[in-house]
């Protein structure tokens, strides 16, 4: 049974999250997937076909390096498996994309019985503060006691936005006035987390990329405070990226990766883009695990990223034809 066909019959077993994922990836299926699969319709297997596929993958924001890698993999598969017809390459392409995504879910690295700190970074406007609110809600429902630290003191109303989320999900927020030293906020947030015996402290940070040196210095100060006041507690550095920005998201992954040592990615607004190939670029080009994906406005629409469920949702329309 082929890759596309083997998911037949699973629709009856879908969970609510899987149904929401299928719905959330509708634009990506109509745009990215239909375009790359459309390359094979009525075509000969030749260099022109592979060039057209590369262009379609790049247009879907998988990144140039990843597009070249996928195309090269497909060339080898066509020779190894003696594939004669271009339409049969759909199956091989789906398998290669699923293989690039990987098999394993990458959960948050949280330890029981001790304070866990999650540092959240990303440029303004990507949905960073909203993602923090949704992650904290999920953790709270899972039984963790969570505190939020509003260390983005440069963006107007950033702390207020975080406080609104805190009130909505019943979580304390430690904040200073606008323009305060972010490292001082982190210091107080750690003290509060210890005193209140919190399991998880999630720290929001400023998202300025105009001056990379300032960004690195600021984040370095924050990490020094964490190392001094709660050595070993920093378990995750999550980069929040907006899927609708495509190639800009990939360039942000590079800059923040150099500045902070990212452990995972939160990819927001996937439901609003036809270029969901950015997930492949992040995984393949930077080897960063995608930990959460945003596929809607509601709290429950921030889902733990399951690579194989994602692949199944990407190709669900194709399985009808397989």
> Distance between the terminal alpha carbons, to the nearest Å?
10 Å
Q: Which strand order spans the largest sheet, edge to edge or round the barrel? A: 3-2-4-1-5-6-7-8
Helix content: 40-55%
Q: Rg from C-alpha positions?
A: 21 Å
Low-confidence stretches: none
* Strand/helix succession: HHHHHEHEHEHEHEHEHEEHH
Strand count, sense and barrel status of the largest sheet are: 8 strands, mixed
Structural class: alpha/beta
Total domains, how many? 2
What is the mean predicted local confidence, pLDDT?
A: 87
Give the name of the CATH architecture of the largest domain: 3-Layer(aba) Sandwich
Beta-strand residue fraction: 5-15%
CATH class (first level) name of the largest domain: Alpha Beta
Instruction: Give the overall shape.
Output: elongated
Helical element count? Answer: 13
The name CATH uses for the topology of the largest domain is Rossmann fold
In total, the number of strands is 8
């Amino acid at each position: 049974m082929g890759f596309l066909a083997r998911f037949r019959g699973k629709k009856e077993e879908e969970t609510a999250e899987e149904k929401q994922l299928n719905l959330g990836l509708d634009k990506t299926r109509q745009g990215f997937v239909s375009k790359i699969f459309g390359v094979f319709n009525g075509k000969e297997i030749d260099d022109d076909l592979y060039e057209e596929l590369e262009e379609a993958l790049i247009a879907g924001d998988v990144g140039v390096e990843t597009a070249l890698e996928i195309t090269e993999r497909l060339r080898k598969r066509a020779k190894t498996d003696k594939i004669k017809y271009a339409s049969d390459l759909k199956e091989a392409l789906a398998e290669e994309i699923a293989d690039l995504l990987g098999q394993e879910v990458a959960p948050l690295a949280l330890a029981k019985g001790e304070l866990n700190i999650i540092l959240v970074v990303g440029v303004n406007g990507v949905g960073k503060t909203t993602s923090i609110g949704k992650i904290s809600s999920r953790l709270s429902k899972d039984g963790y006691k969570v505190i939020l630290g509003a260390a983005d003191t440069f963006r107007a109303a950033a702390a207020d936005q975080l406080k609104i989320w805190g009130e909505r999900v019943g979580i304390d927020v430690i904040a200073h006035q606008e323009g305060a030293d972010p490292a001082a906020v982190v210091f107080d947030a750690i003290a509060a987390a210890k005193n209140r015996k919190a399991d998880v402290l999630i720290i929001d940070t400023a998202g300025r990329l105009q001056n990379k040196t300032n960004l690195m210095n600021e984040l370095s100060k924050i990490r020094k405070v964490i190392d001094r006041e709660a050595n070993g507690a920093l378990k995750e550095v999550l980069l929040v990226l907006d899927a609708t920005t495509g190639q800009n998201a990939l360039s942000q992954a590079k800059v923040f990766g150099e500045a902070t040592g990212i452990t995972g990615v939160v990819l927001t607004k996937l439901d609003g883009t036809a270029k969901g190939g950015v997930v492949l670029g992040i995984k393949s080009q930077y080897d960063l695990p995608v930990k959460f994906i945003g596929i809607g406005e509601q709290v429950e629409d921030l889902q733990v990223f399951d690579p194989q469920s994602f692949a199944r949702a990407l190709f669900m329309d194709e399985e009808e034809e397989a």
